[in-house]
Amino acid sequence: MLTFHYTVELTTMLPCDPSTSKPLEPFTGIIEAENYDAAKQKAWTPIIARKKQIEAERGIMVGVGNVEIMCQTVSTPDGWTEASARATFLNRLKHQIREVTKALDASEQVFGQSLEATAVKHAVTILLSELAVHGLSPEAPVMTPLAYQQCALRTLYPDLTTDKRLGLCGLGLPGEVGEVVDLIKKFLYHRNGKPLDVEKLTRELGDMLWYFAVLLDTIGLTFEDVMMANVAKLEARHGNGFNPHYASDSHASEVER
């Protein structure tokens, strides 16, 4: 088990618009996880809790900057120090780089052999896993639910009252659902051999998501709140897999009443 230190800058504005974003406070903590990816996922729980706490106390919208994760120590029965953990990691890293080099040299001796079929792929996979543990592997930009919600809110007219927000979402969301339904209907019954227009469907689903994000914020929820609540409901109904008693959610709701 590895010990990680996380740091994130909380701001008074949205991170989507850095030019107007003002630092509010740095938020740091220490967590334990098996690897870098698990640590980054685990860090979001206290970060979101702190974000909500500030918003409730000060009545402002709080943005979340980039989360920085750094491996500190390795928890072992011998109680390794940070220095010894770093030295061990560097030695493993050097060893694995040598293994990748050996595999590349061996593959050159077999004419026409694919790198996928040699030991190169295996050696590189291990190397990347070593880097990932310490957060050194290259990462593609990831849009998180929280980041999307903040970006969506940045495009919302700022002076809408709660009632007007609810009206906007209540009318806009079913309208966008209708657009999605119409695309699927045309594909199923009027396609004339044409494939499903996934690009247009993606845009319409994005419009649905925008209204959903605004609705969640209007009633004081995040995507994470809804996702966790839904997972809890699914666990209660289908804890051991699909339960035919709840084959229809509408019927299940009637039973619960």
Describe the structure.
The protein is of the alpha+beta class and 257 residues long. The protein is built from eight helices and four strands. Strands 1, 2, 3 and 4 form a four-stranded antiparallel beta sheet that branches.
Identify the notable features of this structure and list them briefly.
single chain, 257 residues, alpha+beta, Helix Hairpins, four-stranded antiparallel sheet, 8 helices, 4 strands, 58% helix, extended
Radius of gyration: 25 Å
End-to-end Cα distance: 45 Å
- Top CATH class of one domain: Mainly Alpha
SS strand fraction? 5-15%
Q: Unreliable segments (pLDDT under 50, ≥5 consecutive)?
A: none
Say what the CATH topology of one domain is.
Answer: Helix Hairpins
How helical, in percent, are the residues? Answer: 55-70%
Shape: extended
Number-wise, the strands total 4
Question: Given the helix and strand composition, which structural class is it?
Answer: alpha+beta
Sequence of secondary-structure elements = EEHEEHHHHHHH
**Largest sheet composition:** 4 strands, antiparallel
Which second-level CATH architecture of one domain applies? Orthogonal Bundle
- The residue-averaged pLDDT reads 77
By DSSP (H or I, 4+ residues per run), the number of helices equals: 8
CATH superfamily of one domain: MazG-like
